[in-house]
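Thread: "does anyone have the structure for this chain?"

Original post by V.I.:
We have the sequence but no experimental structure in hand. Need at least a predicted one for the grant figures.
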Amino acid sequence: MTAVPDASSSPAVITVLQPDPTVPLDRFTQWLPSTHRTVLLTEEPVPPLADCGEGIVVLGGRGNAIDDATSPFLPALRELLRAAVDAQVPVLGICLGHQILAHTFGGELTLASAEQDQEGAFAVQLTAAGREDPVLGGLDDEFWTAQSHHDAVTRLPEQAQLLATSAQCPIQAFRLGSAVGVQFHPEASPELMARWRENYGENASALLAQMRSRDEQIAAAGRHIAEAFGQVVRERTDR
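Reply from O.Q.:
Generated one for you, tokens below.
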């Protein structure tokens, strides 16, 4: 378990749950304004809600959201997410984390979705609800994202609000109570995206060039999401 000190005066702590050692916090390490600690779920148990501080981030990974045999931490993680939403603890789910959130609360997924598979830089659009959301609100109506996924949420949980969409992958972000899920990777640098491609034995030069060409817009959106989520966590702490 690693901890990153924060220079601000806020006592808020965010627990980062990392399902895959190859999918780290990356640029969120600098952008999250609160103190945070990371729990690598392949090596450490899912912590109880009482030990998660004032907010939770669930990162992405190569597994899927429904295969408990391959990812034995999933049942405990679902229990934690239900408890967090019941207690109104802010949660941010990223890519796999977004899919786990949706599945936990009754949404539907398509695994290995050829139609919705995305790898690279893609524009997505805010919905009316997204423009008013405390985490996504303030982004441009159309903003650029880093995408690396083969699975997709194809039906939202009941009571969830769609926050962002695109033609290829319609459910790009949603809110359910205190939890927000985003299908894209606001934390990922071009270099991390390239490493993921290389991990599959593929040439990453074209992807790296594409990601770098859009990185100013992608980084601005990612930083906004990290800072806005941190602000939501601080506001809960101050109540």
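V.I.: this helps a lot. The chain has one domain: 2-238.
O.Q.: and The two ends are 28 Å apart (CA to CA).
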